Prior knowledge:
It contains six helices and ten strands; from the N terminus they run αββαββαβββαββααβ. It has helices at 3-8, 27-35, 54-67, 105-111, 152-158, 181-187; strands at residues 11-15, 21-26, 39-45, 48-52, 74-76, 81-83, 87-90, 128-132, 147-151, 207-208.
Amino acid sequence: MTAESSALGCQVLVLNKHYMAVRVVNVKRAISLLFRDLAEVIDCSDGSYSNYDLESWLEVSELKNRFNPHAHDWLHTVRLSIAVPRIVRLLFYDRLPRRSVTLNRRNIYARDRNYCQYCGKHFPTNELSLDHIIPRSRGGGASWENLVCACVKCNVKKGGRLPREAHMKLITPPEKPKRSPVISINLSDGRYHSWKQFLDHAYWSVELK
């Protein structure tokens, strides 16, 4: 993977005008917002942060590239090298973030971190399925507490039974996460450490787009 493709694979936290986290976008979307003057960069350092419009961020990027290039991911053009922002703030959007985490396949996989909740092994997404702990045939519904990741082998072994009937045990009792589990995964990556100060309050959740 080239440095350029790695940079394009980064994610950017988006805040509304009141500094509340509202979603996560890819780098192309974030740069587009900056070029259209719809957002500014929030650059965090030592517990504080600074605000930069696009022109200022290009100047800051030049200094970062000269003195500390390895601390950043970079987008390069013929004339410019742009440090990939970790956080941008929308200048005109003041809606509040969603307070609940959507129950969907991606969030369950992220919550369980792609580990089968029966054998405890890690699998790529295409080798995992969702298992109803209480089978649907026995009244089990779709909920955070009744859905877990399971590898094909364990899912087949369990079949339409309860885990105890199949002599299987859950690695971790499933529960609804307080914030988007995808965000929790990103917070374990040092590149996104600056997100934390904008995500610490329980009422802030992130809508993924």
